[in-house]
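Sorry to interrupt, but I need a hand with the structure work. Can you supply me with one protein entry, sequence and fold together? No commentary is needed, just the two lines. Leave the record below and I will have a look.
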Amino acid sequence: MGIAEFILSNAEGLHPSYPYLNGLIGMIKKINVQQLKPGMFVHDLNCGWMEHPFLTGTLKVKSDRDIEKIVGNGIHEVYIDTAKGLDVVDAPTENEVKAELEHQMMNMAQKAKPVASASLREELEKSREVHSEANKIVRNIMHDVRLGKQIELEQIDPMVEQMTASILRNKDALLSLCRIKNKDDYTFLHSVSVGALLISFAHGLNLDRDTLKLLGIGGMLHDIGKMKVPDEILNKPGKLTEEEFLIMKSHVVHSRDILAETPDIAQASLDVAAQHHERFDGSGYPLRLKGPEMSVYGQMASIVDVYDAITSNRCYHKGMEPTEALRKMFEWSKFHFNPELIHTFIRTIGIYPVGTLVMLESGKIGVVIEQHEKDLTRPLVRAVFDSRKNYYIATEDIDLSKPLGQGGGDKIVSHESPAKWGIEVQKFM
C-alpha cells in the first residue's frame, strides 16, 4: 500500500491540519449549523454580506460562543473548508450543491414571462433620462429629510409614473441601467434600483398598475431612515463593527417612522420600508416577523433589497454577478425568503438578466440583450468577443432558442465577469 492509499484508508482518525491530507482531500462542504463544532473553518457564512456583523465571511470556529453567535444571526447553513479545519464526512460538496441548485433553477426557468412592447435599444434612450432624474429626486428628498423637512409625495409621484411606464414598455432597459452604480452615490442609486425592481417584480406577479406605483414609491423611499444614521457609519469605507452594525440596523425603524408621518402615504409603500430587512423564517429585523406576519409587499421588498445589494460593488465588497446572486438567493429561500416569490422574481428578471456577459459553447462571449418569452435559459445574445483567439469580433446576434442555420445553434456554458475580460457591456446594448 502506498503512502496516499494508507492516509486515505486511515483518514477518519486524522485531523485535517495534517499537511499531506490537506492537499489531498481538503474541500469545501455545506453543513447545517447544528453540525458546527470548535475546530471547523467556516469558508462562507452563506448569507448576504450585509446580513451579519462578522468582519469577514470566513472564520475559524474556536468555541461554542462562536457557534452561538452564528446561529443568533439567523444563519442556518454554512460552507466549511475541510483543508483548514474539521470535516463532516457525509456532507455534500460545494460543487454538488451548486449543480443541484442549477438543475432546479433550469427546470423552473421553462415558464412564460411578461413580453416587452418596445425594443431594448429604443427604450434605453428614454430610460437613461428617467434613471438620471430619479436619482436626482431621491438625492433631494434625502437631503430634505436630513434637514428635518417632511417628505412631499408630490415630488416623487410623477417620477414613479415615468419609471412604471418605462418598465411596462421594456423592463430590461431601466433595470440594466440600475446595475451601474458609483460608490459615492450608492445610497441614492440603490433606492432607485429597489424602486425599479419592485415595479418589475409586481408586474411579473400581474398586480394592478396602481399597486406597481405604490411599491415603486416604497422602494424609492425604503432607506430614507439612513439619513438619521451618522455619516461616519453610513459612509464608512469598511466593514462595520458590531456596535456600528446595531446603529445601522436602526435605519429601518427611522424609515418606518418618517413615512408614517408622511401625508397620504399608502400602507403598501409603508410595508416596503418597514419590512425590507425582515426574513421569512423570523430571523430578520426590527420585529423578527415570520412568514405571513410579513405583508406580501414586505416579502417582495426583502428579496429585491438583498438582490440589489449583493450585486453592487462597494469599496469593501465586490458585488456578485446577477446569475450567481440569483442562485445564492434561490438557495437562501429555503429559510430567508418566500420560495414562491423567489421563483417569480427569477422568472421576471431572468436567470441571465439582460446585460449579463455569458460564455457560449462556441467560445464566443456575448451580452444578453433579450429574454426568450418561455425559456430563460435560451436568451438572445449579442456575441462580441472570441475567448479562444482573445480578440473582439464583429457583433453577431445569436438567438439561442433557434437551431443552427436559423440564427442559433449555440448555448450558454457560464456567466462571465466583464472586468475579467475588459468588456464594457453597455457599449453593446
In short: The chain has three domains: 3-92, 120-349, 357-428. The domain at 120-349 is CATH 1.10.3210.10 (Hypothetical protein af1432). Strands lie at 28-32, 41-44, 59-60, 77-81, 357-360, 364-370, 380-386, 391-399, 412-416. The two ends are 60 Å apart (CA to CA).
